[in-house]
Amino acid sequence: MIERRKPISVGEAVQRIMEWKKYGDEEYVSIEKSDGRFLSQPLKADHDVPHFDRSPYDGFAIRSEDTDSCSNEQPIQLEVVDEIGAGQVSSFHLKQNQAIRIMTGAAIPSGADCVIMLELTSEAEKDGKKFITIKRKMKKGENISFQGEDAKKGDKLIEEGTKVNPGVKALLATFGYNQVPVVRRPIIGVLATGSELLEVDEPLQSGKIRNSNGHMIISQVERAGGVVRRYGQCEDHLEDVLKTVQLAVEECDFVITTGGVSVGDFDYLPEIYDRLGAKKLFNKIAMRPGSVTTAAVCNGKLLFGLSGNPSACYVGFELYVRPIIRYWLHQSKPFLAKGTAILQKDFPKANPFNRFVRSQLHYGEGGRLFVSPVGLDKSNVVTSLAWANCLMVLPGGTRGFKTGDLVDVLLLEDETGSDVPWQESKKSSKL
Amino acid sequence: MIERRKPISVGEAVQRIMEWKKYGDEEYVSIEKSDGRFLSQPLKADHDVPHFDRSPYDGFAIRSEDTDSCSNEQPIQLEVVDEIGAGQVSSFHLKQNQAIRIMTGAAIPSGADCVIMLELTSEAEKDGKKFITIKRKMKKGENISFQGEDAKKGDKLIEEGTKVNPGVKALLATFGYNQVPVVRRPIIGVLATGSELLEVDEPLQSGKIRNSNGHMIISQVERAGGVVRRYGQCEDHLEDVLKTVQLAVEECDFVITTGGVSVGDFDYLPEIYDRLGAKKLFNKIAMRPGSVTTAAVCNGKLLFGLSGNPSACYVGFELYVRPIIRYWLHQSKPFLAKGTAILQKDFPKANPFNRFVRSQLHYGEGGRLFVSPVGLDKSNVVTSLAWANCLMVLPGGTRGFKTGDLVDVLLLEDETGSDVPWQESKKSSKL
C-alpha cells in the first residue's frame, strides 16, 4: 500500500530540524592547524593594539611645538640625538630642537609628540653632529599610531563561532593564541544506498550508475565544517542497511543516508526508522528538488534521509544539514546567506512548489546582482552542480519567471551566513 | 641618501608581475583528497549521462498509446508483467496493455515509452495476476530521463583550472575519476623580517609586537591554492636575511618576504635584490595601503616584498600574489572578481591614491549589493581584516565618498574570479 505523504513547508521542515540542534564541545588546535575551524570562544583583546604609541612611518620623532614657526620659507634645523630601530626603545627624553630617527613600527620616544616622514626631511652633518631640516609645521599627534587605537584591552573582537580565515588568523597571532580554542567538528556518518550504485573505479554497466552522491556529500560536509565517517554504499537490502545505520547512529553525531527515501517498494527508510525506534520529523517537503527529503531522530541524534538524485541530495543537504552543522560550530548565522538578484534568463516552467534552482551569480554595474540558472533543472541532473555558486529560489504557486524579474538567491560560497533560514513568505506558504 | 621612488599604477604593477607567470605541472590525487585542488585538464564526459533511458520516478513503465482513450471517466487496466529494481534490467519486451513496475533510477524496459508515477495508479489482483488502473492519458516520452539529456559523451563539462567543490566532485565520481588530474600546488617560501617581531607564544615586550603577518600569509596562500614553506622570522640583519632569501629562491616556486620594504635605513630589501642579482619590477605603487609593495625576479622566480603592516601586507597579497598562484593553477580567471556596490556609510577621507578598504558586503533587496568599510582604515590596523569579505576600491584623485555612492568591490570569498585585474580607469590612472 502506498503511503500518501503530506508535504510540509520548507520553513516548517527547518524548524523541526532545528529543535534538535546541539552545541559542539571545545578542543584546542595549534594556530597552524586552525584554518577553516570555528572558534569556540569570542576572541577578546588581552592587551591594547598597538600596546604602545608607535610610528607608522620611517622618519623622525619630534616635538610639534618646535615647528610652530616653520614653513617652506623659514625652515628649521633639529639635532638628531638617537636612532630607534623597530623593536627598540630609546632611553632619550627628547628636548627642545631635538629629533630622533625612528623606523616604521618603533615606539615613540618620550618627549616626542609627532613623527615627520623621512621623505619630508633633508639630513646634514656639522661638527660631527647630525641635523635634519624641516620645512613644514607639524601638528601634535601627527603620524602617531596611538596605544589602543586599533583595539582596546577587553574589546570583543570576534564572535565565537567565527570561521578562521587569514584575517582572523592575524588576530589570533597578535593576541598570542599559539593554541586556539575551536569547536570539535561534528562527525557525520554517510551511507549511500541503492543497488544501482557502482564504486567510482568500477566500469559502467547497463542500469547502473556510479555513486556520485557519496563523494559529493563528503565535500559538502567538509565545506560546512564537519567531518565524515564513511559507511560506504549498501545494496537495497533492508537488514544490511538497518545494521549499518544502527552502527552509524552509535558512532556519529548525525547520520546521512542517500537514496531509499521515495515511495517505491524498495524505499525502506520508513521501515528502518520504525525498527530503530526513531521519531519521524517529516518525510515530504513542498519543494523541488528534494521533496522526498526525510528526517528522524534516534537516541537524540538526527538522521537525514536525502534523495538519491544528485541535485535533490545537494539541495537537501544545504537547506537542512548545513545549518545543523554550523549551529554545532557555534555560528550565530548558521543558514545560507540570502540575497536578491535580477534574473538574466527566462525560466518559463511553472512552480507548483518552491523551486531551488542551481544558478550562478554575476556582479554587475550599478550595485546590482544578477543570476542565471545553470544547466538543466531536473532533480536527477548532476552536471549543473559543478557550476552553481547559489541556489535561486522560485516560490511555490508562481508561474514562470522572466528576464529582469527579481528573485531570492541563497549563496553557497559566502561565509557570512544568515541568522534566519529562507522560508516561504505568507503568500507562497499557502500550499 | 634616500631614494625618491616613483610610484606606478596598480594596473601597471599587475601587468609587470603577470609577465613572469608560470603554468604548474600535473599530478594525480585520489578523489578523496581532491577537495580544493585545481583540475589540470578539462573534464569531458566519457559517456552519455544518463547512459541509458531511466525512470526519474517510482511507477510503471507503460506504452503511451495504450492510454489514448483513457480519462477519469474511462479508466483502463494494464497487466503488471515484471518488476525492475534500481540497477536491474528487465528482459521483457512490453506488449499491448502491459505495464512493468519500475523504481527510481532504473532502466526503461524495451517497448515502454513513458512512466506513470506510482501515486497516480491503483493496484489490484485478479486470478493471481496483478493489474493497475490508470485514469489519465500519457504522452510519449513522459517521465523518462533520456540517455544523454544531462550530458553527451564528449561534452566538455568543466574547464581546466576549476577548483574542486562538492558539485565538481559529483561529476568526477560520475565519470570514474578515482584518481584526479590536478595541478601541483606552487610552493611559496614565506619569510617575515623585522627585529620587532615576537613569536606567537612569546610574551609582549615594549616596542615589540607578535608576528601576525607570517600566520596571515600562510592562510592567504592556502586560500589561494598554494602551499607554504616557512622560513620563520628574521631580525633585521642583512646577511641573515640575504642567506635565507637565497635558500628560499632555490627551494620554492615563489618567495614572499614581509617587512623591510620601506625607505628607512633598516629597509634593506633593495640591497638584497641587488646582491641576489634580481631584476626589480617595481618598488612603489600608487595605492593605499601597500604603496611600498615591491617585486623582483631572480632566476626567473618572482620575489614579492610585501609591507610589514598587516593591512598593507594583506592587500598586497590579494592584488599581486593571488593571481600568480591562480594562474599557476591553470585558472582562466585568476584575479579577484569585481562587482559594484552601494556604499552604506560615509567615507569622508580624500583619496590621493587608489584606496583598497577592508569592507563587508551585504546582499539587500531589489537585487542590490551594499558595502560598508569595517574598522579603522589605516595600513597598520589588524582587527578589520578579520571582518572583511571584500575590498572596496576608491579611485585615486577622488574626494570623500558618501552613503549611496557606487563603488567597485573586489570579492575575497568568491571562487568565480575575473579574467581581468582591477585597474585604474582612464580618468583615475592619471596620477
From TrEMBL, chains A, B:
<dbReference type="InterPro" id="IPR001453">
    <property type="entry name" value="MoaB/Mog_dom"/>
</dbReference>
<dbReference type="Pfam" id="PF03453">
    <property type="entry name" value="MoeA_N"/>
</dbReference>
<dbReference type="InterPro" id="IPR036135">
    <property type="entry name" value="MoeA_linker/N_sf"/>
</dbReference>
<comment type="function">
    <text>Catalyzes the insertion of molybdate into adenylated molybdopterin with the concomitant release of AMP.</text>
</comment>
<feature type="domain" description="MoaB/Mog">
    <location>
        <begin position="189"/>
        <end position="327"/>
    </location>
</feature>
<comment type="pathway">
    <text>Cofactor biosynthesis; molybdopterin biosynthesis.</text>
</comment>
<keyword id="KW-0479">Metal-binding</keyword>
<dbReference type="Pfam" id="PF03454">
    <property type="entry name" value="MoeA_C"/>
</dbReference>
<comment type="similarity">
    <text>Belongs to the MoeA family.</text>
</comment>
<dbReference type="GO" id="GO:0005829">
    <property type="term" value="C:cytosol"/>
</dbReference>
<dbReference type="GO" id="GO:0006777">
    <property type="term" value="P:Mo-molybdopterin cofactor biosynthetic process"/>
</dbReference>
<dbReference type="Pfam" id="PF00994">
    <property type="entry name" value="MoCF_biosynth"/>
</dbReference>
<keyword id="KW-0500">Molybdenum</keyword>
<dbReference type="InterPro" id="IPR005110">
    <property type="entry name" value="MoeA_linker/N"/>
</dbReference>
<dbReference type="GO" id="GO:0046872">
    <property type="term" value="F:metal ion binding"/>
</dbReference>
<keyword id="KW-0808">Transferase</keyword>
<keyword id="KW-0501">Molybdenum cofactor biosynthesis</keyword>
<protein>
    <recommendedName>
        <fullName>Molybdopterin molybdenumtransferase</fullName>
        <ecNumber>2.10.1.1</ecNumber>
    </recommendedName>
</protein>
<dbReference type="InterPro" id="IPR038987">
    <property type="entry name" value="MoeA-like"/>
</dbReference>
<dbReference type="InterPro" id="IPR036688">
    <property type="entry name" value="MoeA_C_domain_IV_sf"/>
</dbReference>
<dbReference type="InterPro" id="IPR036425">
    <property type="entry name" value="MoaB/Mog-like_dom_sf"/>
</dbReference>
<dbReference type="InterPro" id="IPR005111">
    <property type="entry name" value="MoeA_C_domain_IV"/>
</dbReference>
<keyword id="KW-0460">Magnesium</keyword>
<dbReference type="GO" id="GO:0061599">
    <property type="term" value="F:molybdopterin molybdotransferase activity"/>
</dbReference>
